[in-house]
């Protein structure tokens, strides 16, 4: 019997995801029509040995979280529980604090996921690899290739090419170590708690040996630095490499990229989730998710005058796409005739009025975009000429204190008037514009 643990963090994390995380815990933000961690859970269910999934984080229980757990349990027929940390305990501290709950039922092992990643999770292949390693109790981590420069932003590992043992591991090194990076997915056996426990006891001993006894850091144990690094080279840690897609979801811009990846994956895993052409609906080319409750104007039509890459949406959330639109239309969205959408997320209850244009943007819950208005952001994609390139989660401001070009984000209940342009802007919730707005944050 196996279990799975998803580390979802807490409200003090995910600041780069604001203002979207102001309204909803980041792990529940919808990507490709479903919350981020729903994709993790769905991947776990594909492995029959997984009998329970635990969410560990510091979020206060909420209606949204409780509803998600209840709905997901019912849909996927899996036991799903949330375990709340009393404070931020770190990626390994939370595991150790809830070790009794994880070990209940005597699982032979358990998966651990970081909650802020998107991936074509190779669960079955990774588990088969883990079982084939003939060294007694051992642990397995998932890795992927990155560019030499970008590898410095991740945990890097060096492996024995024959045995796949991890010989050296460094979290975000200062100099180049390896282009193999940690993907934030692990398989542990119960023995891992003896290693975490040793670090826990050391931290506690430091408090009584002259340390700061009110410093909350003593309760924080980092999986990468405190556990994985010492295990490297001890014939305990092994690596399974994936060539499937993988990306972090650190910023709102990376959510759009994740949306593209998951929509593309639906072609092979869930083609029924993608919108298709029909006689009474819009013309659709590319990968588009439209929630059944969205309202799309049936008059939306294909027009050869549309520029390449544009999309038009209508009827439940009408969509007319010329090439690879990568659009998700949420529940209750209203999209008028002539609307063009590309590389964007339109969240629940939003309204796109006639002939507006949405490019590289996230339209917040219950927001409204006026007729003939253009809302546009700047794409933040990996280098298309390098298959190992990852998306860069850049900071909002450059060294001169100016706002870096980024996707445009409308928070909840934002109102954009007709016939204006909103470019590379971030609008916090409950704002109402009266004119065009660009390269700014509206607080």
From TrEMBL:
It comes from the Eukaryota. Signal peptide: none annotated. The keyword Transmembrane helix does not apply. InterPro entries: GMPPB_C, Mannose-1P_guanyltransferase, NTP_transferase_dom, Nucleotide-diphossugar_trans, Trimer_LpxA-like_sf. One of its GO terms (molecular function) is transferase activity. Keywords: Transferase. It holds the Pfam family GMPPB_C. Residues 284-441 form the Mannose-1-phosphate guanyltransferase C-terminal domain. Residues 3-203 form the Nucleotidyl transferase domain. The keyword Transferase applies. Belongs to the transferase hexapeptide repeat family. PANTHER family: SUGAR-1-PHOSPHATE GUANYL TRANSFERASE. This is Putative mannose-1-phosphate guanyltransferase alpha-A isoform X1. It comes from Stichopus japonicus. The lineage of its organism: Eukaryota, Metazoa, Echinodermata, Eleutherozoa, Echinozoa.
